[in-house]
Amino acid sequence: MHASRPISVEGRFVGVAVAREADWLFLATDPVLEDLEGAAFPNPAEAMRVARIVLMRGRGSRKAA
After folding, report:
1. Which of 4, 26, 53, 65 is deepest in the core (most CB within 10 A)?
2. How far is it, in rounded angstroms, from Cα 42 to Cα 30?
3. Number of alpha carbons in the 13 Å side-chain half-sphere of residue 58
4. What local confidence, expressed as pLDDT, does residue 41 receive?
5. From CA 21, how far away is CA 35, in angstroms rounded?
6. How many domains does the chain have?
7. Structural contact between residues 32 and 54, judged by C-beta atoms closer than 8 angstroms
8. Which domain holds residue 21?
9. Which one-letter DSSP state was computed for residue 11?
């Protein structure tokens, strides 16, 4: 059985980190983070950190438009 951790940013469920042999695979559930789909991270905390950055950048670009 694979270990997995939900990834949420400010209460918004955005994906799942799934453990592999040496890293964690990010599976996006939110279309805003589809570019991160399949990205490898050393741990779920790093996946969450990057997801937060991408999500916040997306919000910023919408405000500027």
Report:
1. 26
2. 21
3. 13
4. 98
5. 23
6. 1
7. yes
8. 4-64
9. T
pLDDT digits (tens, 9 = 90+) for 5-55: 999 999 999 999 999 999 999 999 999 999 999 999 999 999 999 999 999
Provide CB contacts within 8 A for 14, sequence distance 6+. 7, 8, 28, 29, 30, 32, 33, 51, 55
The more confidently predicted of residues 34 and 1 is 34
The pLDDT assigned to 58 comes to 74
Which single residue is written with the structure tokens 């991160």?
Answer: 36
Task: Return the structure tokens found at 35.
Answer: 């570019």
C-alpha neighbours within 13 Å on the C-beta side of residue 23: 9
Mapped onto helix, strand or coil, the DSSP state of residue 21 is coil
